[in-house]
Amino acid sequence: MFLQIQTGVNPGFEPPQEPVQKTLSIMELITSGGVGGIVIMSILFLLFSIAIYIFFERYQSISKAGKLDQGFINAIKAQVSAGKLDAAKAMCASANTPVARMIEKGISRIGRPLKDIAAAIENTGKIEVLQLEKNLALLATISGAAPMIGFLGTVIGMILAFHEMAAAGGQIRVDMLAEGIYTAMTTTVAGLLVGIVSYMSYNILVTKVNNVVYKMEVSATEFLDLLNEAV
After folding, report:
1. What are phi and psi for residue 110, nearest 5 degrees?
2. Are 160 and 179 in contact (CB under 8 A)?
3. What is the pTM of this model?
4. 5 has a pLDDT exceeding 70
5. Cα-flanking dihedrals φ and ψ of residue 39, to 5°?
6. Per-residue CA distances from 78 to 85, 205, 227 (Å)
7. φ and ψ at 173, to 5 degrees?
8. Domain membership flag for residue 8
């Protein structure tokens, strides 16, 4: 009995293998959703690129427009008080800012009733605000449309998954549903990310525009007060 005991490893015994973790690159994650997923992801990438371009372009423009030198305002007051209107206009033209263009319009109307000067400055200010808000509506549209496009990809992915289930009959495997599930998940995440970035960018730009508008209103009020004192 003791002689029949064998030592060593049983050749028919296979030790359990540790599960191998599989990782996906970003490109594999995008292309794993099939044609529908690739189309949705391409649209979202285009919207993301447009949103980033609008943000940086508007941020630089609004920041430049918001620079207000108090020395410039004081110099304009001094020139207008001295009656040197041409020199004041030249200073405004060289500044090339919304505030300078508003004041230049007011200087060009000096001699008319104060109400007409205020109306001219107000109209110029409205035009300048429209220029500052250029493409902000598009950025707001992207922030709302991107998540919906992502959810569209989710619906397409679930349709693909259910189609595979129906075609397989009773023999359903997880790998058969993978394409539809990948499409559903990746497009949803991508749409939400684009929407969040666009929404935050829109709010940042709107805040900067409001700051510039406030500076424009203050400068216009100071200029009108100067003209009122002169009268």
Report:
1. -60, 135
2. yes
3. 0.76
4. no
5. -65, -45
6. 10, 34, 12
7. -120, 155
8. no
d(CA 170, CA 14): 32
Return the bridge partners of 112, or none: 110
Whether the Cβ atoms of residue 228 and residue 188 lie closer than 8 Å to each other:
no
Q: Mean pLDDT score of the chain, rounded to an integer?
A: 79
In degrees to the nearest 10, what's the CA dihedral of 225, 227, 229, 231? -140
- Whose structure tokens read 């991508």? 190
Residue by residue, DSSP assigns 99-125 as: HHHHHHHHHHTBTB-HHHHHHHHHHHH
Number of domains in the chain: 1
pLDDT at 208 over 70: yes
C-alpha closest to that of 173 among 159, 157, 161, 185? 161
Domain residues for 197? 34-55+69-230
Is residue 223 assigned to a domain? yes
